[in-house]
Each structure stands twice: as C-alpha cells, then as structure tokens.
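Sequence, please.
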C-alpha cells in the first residue's frame, strides 16, 4: 500500500510552545509517528505570565485545548498606559470589543497553564506522539532523510542516531539546528544583542491581602504598562485572578554579551529596585513584594531575519527562526501559529517524496515568514517608542497619546492599537494555509 503523509516519521526537537503545537496539530491530522525530543526533564515550571491573544486562542481552539487553558485564564477588558514616575494615565484603551470582533477574548494566563494545556492535548494521542524527555538532540544532518543524535541523560542508554522523514527544529532561541543550517547554507545572520533584559515577577494574592490598591489590580481585568526612559513594566493578573504577573524591560547590564551565555539568571532584588527607583510608590511596593532570591532576570535577544527557514526536509519553528522582543506579546503566539500551519502543510502533501516534503515546508515558510518578521519589527519599534527619554521624539509621542485621549489618532503603544490588533488578531494563518496550499505548493 502506498505510504500516506500520516505514515511519515516526524521528529520534533524541543517541547516548548512551538514543538507541542506541532506535535498536537500533526496528531490531529492523523500522523502516527511523532517523536518529541526535549532537553529538559519535563515541561518545566516557568513562573511567568503570558498573554493569550485571540490569534493564539484560535489555533488552540482548533486543536481542542483552548477551553481548558481559558478556564484558568483572566479575561482582559482594558489596558492602561501610564507614566512610570507619576502613575499618570497616558492612555486607557477598552479591549472588550476584541471578543466580538475576533471571535476570542484577549486573555492572560500562566505559562505553565498554556504549556500544560498543550501537553495534555498531546497525551490524548499516546499511540501517535512519544515524548523523550531529558534527551538532547545534536549533530543534525540535512537530507532527503534528515537525522540527528539523541542523547538521553537519565538512562544508561547510549546516544543513538535517529533518521526521519521530517525534522521540525523547535529548539528555541538558542537553536543549534539553526546554527548548523546557516553554516551549511553559508548564510550569515547573527544574534542581535537588544541591550535589554527583563525581570519576571509573580505576586500571589495572599501576599497583598492588606494592600487594597494591589488587590484591586489582582482582582481586575486590566493590563497596565508603566513606562519610563529605556524601561517599562507590564503587569496583569493571571491564574483566575490569584496571581499578579509583572514583566519588566530595562537596559541589560548583567549578562555577558557572548551568544552562548545563559539567557536567564537569578537577579538581585536591590539592583531591580534601583533600576525602577524613580517609578511611583505603588510600583515600588509591587516590586518589594518579591521575596529575596526569587528575582529572575532574562536576557532579551533577537536574531537577524533569516532568508529561509527550511533546508531539505528540516524546518525551523518558533523562536528558532523568529525570536522577538516581548513588547507585542506575540512570541509564543507566533510559535503556535507556526505549529498550526505545519499541521496543515504536511497533511496536505500530495505524496511522500522528500522533494514534496521540502516543498510543503516551503509553503509553511511562505505563509508564516513575512508575518512573523513584521511582528518582530513592530515589537522592536513599540519598545523604542515606549522607552523614549526627554527630547523632541518623546514630546511627539506624548502629543500622540494626548490626541488618542481626545479620540484622534492611534495609541503609540502598538500592542494596544486597534489597527495593529486587527492585523495581529484578525488573521487566521491556519486558514490561509488551508486555502492557499495548492497554489503555494505549485509555485514552491
Ligand atoms: C520576558 C518575556 C516575556 C514574554 N511574554 C510573552 C507573551 O506575553 N506572549 C507571548 O506570546 N510570548 C511571550 N514571550 C515569548 C515566548 O516565551 C517565546 O516566544 C516562546 O516561548 C517560544 O516558543 P518556542 O517553542 O519557539 O521556544 P521555547 O519555548 O524556548 O522552547 C524550546 C525548547 O527546546 C528545548 N531544546 C533546546 N535545544 C534542545 C536540544 N538540543 N535538544 C532537545 N531540546 C532542546 C528547550 O529545552 C525548550 O524546551 C515572552 C518572552 C520573554 C523573554
């Protein structure tokens, strides 16, 4: 009997948001041999919040996992952009229109809730998806059959070589597959040091039970952004309003510039308080709730855009090919969009030859690349605007905020701007892949 796409052997490197979505999307399409190799012992418990935008929810809903994630999330009905030093409101933007306009509300959640929702979805397909945790993938070779070395850490098992029909490199911002692919293709596309880093903080409701102002924020439905020169803080409730999540951005002074340096580190609380020393008393109070030793700092890095995400039967997915600054809150959403599209293009393969697999992966790239890089640039531009210091550019930005308040013009915080939201939330990339596969495959 002729081989169908569903018979193909697929390896997924990395069980982050991109890898889990690819696995689930392919299982839903009936793929029978999906192996996920993850360096970590488990999904990990990354203590941070994440925005669950409608374009992400749409993919998750199609895959049958949105309801469980939504049940633990918080419905966001407005956002407020404020001056960090004075807490003066620059813009108040209602977001309750989003649900009706884009079919899903704008929500915020816990990263572990999102990852676990996807993982639980995968576990419903035990005959199709196999997870290999604590297993590092290395030495990827690209060809009609691609292969790599899998090295399990916790078992006496030796390293072994894995050969597959399709290899999806969802191995994150430090992707070694990306490095190898670029070397092979003689493409120079470096890692860009954004000179920014982020503290990620979670405050539990019981910590602030005697603080009515913070209790109101935790119990509320608002995303707040406090901005200042070269810095800002974005904050919102998650986990059914039991946790208040703060994510900061500030100049990076603590990480070595080396590409392979660790991207996260335990931060120093007093250094964090110093960075935001001129922000208003309420922000100071929030930062002070963080227990000593629980400050986590992330280096923010991005890559230069790549001319291609695909070589032979290998495709880069998620942060491996389009890492972004977090200012548009779209990194994971974009990795999840990738996964939805991968599910479509591989299931629509007209045959299972390596040439067709390559072409189908190129269709994925065509549907996703321009959009992903547009959003990467938009996030960077939004950061530049939010972080302006005194001068003509800031005066112009604040004039735009004032115009927005009187109903004339866009809000300078791109994330909150209705036209940007239409472009980000109103596009269904899975549907585009479904509608345009034949045409794009023919020209790939
Ligand atoms: C401060 C901050 C705030 C953010 N806020 C948001 C937000 O609000 N909304 C949003 O949508 N996004 C947000 N993001 C972005 C989002 O977290 C990432 O874009 C997203 O997690 C990328 O998913 P991924 O699957 O591509 O990579 P990852 O989630 O990084 O997963 C990669 C996986 O691959 C594994 N791996 C790596 N190498 C190997 C190997 N050799 N072998 C086996 N396994 C390997 C890793 O262990 C990891 O589990 C934020 C990011 C930051 C830094």
């Amino acid at each position: 009997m002729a081989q169908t796409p569903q018979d193909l052997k697929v390896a997924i490197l990395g069980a982050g948001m991109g890898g889990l979505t690819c696995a689930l999307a392919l299982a839903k399409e009936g793929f029978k041999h999906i192996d996920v190799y993850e360096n970590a012992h488990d999904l990990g418990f990354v203590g941070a919040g994440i925005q669950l935008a409608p374009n992400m929810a749409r993919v998750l809903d199609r895959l049958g996992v949105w309801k469980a994630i939504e049940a633990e999330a918080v419905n966001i009905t407005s956002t407020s952009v404020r001056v960090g030093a004075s807490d003066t409101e620059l813009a108040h933007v209602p977001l309750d229109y989003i649900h009706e306009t884009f079919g899903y509300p704008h929500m915020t959640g816990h990263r572990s809730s999102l990852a676990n929702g996807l993982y639980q979805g995968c576990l419903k397909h035990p005959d199709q998806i196999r997870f290999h945790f604590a297993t590092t993938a290395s030495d990827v070779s690209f060809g009609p059959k691609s292969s790599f070395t899998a090295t399990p850490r916790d078992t006496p098992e030796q390293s072994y070589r894995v050969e597959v029909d399709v290899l999806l490199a969802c191995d994150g911002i430090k992707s070694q597959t990306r490095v190898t692919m670029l070397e092979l293709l003689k493409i120079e596309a470096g890692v860009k040091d954004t000179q920014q880093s982020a503290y990620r903080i979670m405050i539990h409701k019981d910590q602030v039970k005697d603080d009515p102002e913070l209790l109101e924020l935790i119990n509320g439905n608002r995303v707040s952004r406090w901005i200042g020169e070269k810095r800002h803080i974005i904050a919102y409730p998650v986990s059914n309003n039991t946790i208040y999540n703060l994510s900061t951005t500030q100049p990076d002074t603590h990480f070595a510039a080396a590409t392979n340096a660790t991207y996260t580190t335990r931060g120093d609380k007093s250094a964090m308080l110093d960075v935001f020393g001129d922000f208003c008393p309420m922000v100071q109070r929030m930062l002070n709730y963080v227990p000593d030793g629980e400050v986590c700092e992330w280096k923010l890095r991005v890559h230069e855009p790549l001319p291609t995400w695909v070589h032979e039967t290998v495709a880069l997915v998620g942060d491996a090919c389009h890492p972004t600054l977090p200012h548009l809150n779209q990194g994971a959403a974009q990795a999840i969009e990738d996964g939805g599209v991968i599910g479509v293009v591989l299931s629509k393969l007209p045959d299972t030859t390596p040439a067709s697999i390559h072409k189908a992966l190129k269709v994925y790239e065509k549907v996703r690349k321009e959009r992903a890089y547009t959003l990467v640039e938009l996030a960077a531009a939004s950061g530049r605007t939010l972080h302006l210091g005194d001068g003509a550019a800031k005066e112009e930005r604040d004039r735009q905020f004032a115009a927005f308040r009187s109903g004339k013009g866009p809000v300078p915080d791109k994330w909150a701007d209705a036209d940007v939201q239409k472009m980000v939330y109103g596009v269904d990339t899975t549907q585009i892949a479904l509608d345009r596969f034949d045409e794009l495959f023919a020209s790939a």
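Residues 256-260 have pLDDT under 50 and may be disordered.
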